[in-house]
Amino acid sequence: MATRAEQRERTRRALVREGRRLFATRGYAAVGLSEIVRAAGVTKGALYHHFESKAELFGAVLAEVQREVAGTVAATADARTDPWDSFTAGCQAFLTATTDPDIQRIMLIDGPAVLGWTEWRAMDEAGSARHLAEALAELIEAGLLARQPVAPLTHLLSGAMNEAALWLASSPESLDDTRAALTRMLDALRSGPQPAP
């Protein structure tokens, strides 16, 4: 017999799962609360017990998507032993992960529109941008990047990769070219001996 806490958590997971499925396939604006609760098999009261609004539910979905992308990036980077290879593999993993149309819709298109730019940026900075800043700081300490303030470089690279991911939503056949351009851009930042082409 499930405890109340387990039942609440199951209900919350069902709402996030079904909200995510519907937001990804149809977009935030086209999905109503009634549709979400029907798909999750719960009442509107149950939804409002967990989330004050559809936007708050969407925020939970977006946080889940961001965690998954961050997990993919971290796993890809951690599989490499060389710090530069780790960094560039992580950046490429982000670009590849965000070519998934569901992730694009939730994380890059509806995310800023639904939550507002300020809240979306705060979530991005707390997740992937924080990891990017940590990786850049480590590369600077290792002498693989020139000494410089980390924050501007983090925002420039994060913005470039987010913009590339949005562009790929309408030009998915350009992933290889975009990955190659990202490699050239990152290699241009590198200090010291450059890898052979």
TrEMBL record:
Keywords, ordered alphabetically: DNA-binding, Transcription, Transcription regulation
Record keyword Transcription present: yes
Name of a matching Pfam family: TetR_C_41
Superkingdom per UniProt: Bacteria
Residue ranges of DNA binding: 32-51
Entries under InterPro entries matching the protein: Homeodomain-like_sf, HTH-type_TetR-like_transc_reg, HTH_TetR, Rv0078-like_C
Domain (HTH tetR-type) ranges: 9-69
Keyword rRNA-binding in annotation: no
Protein name per the record: TetR/AcrR family transcriptional regulator
Species in which this protein is naturally found: Actinomadura fulvescens
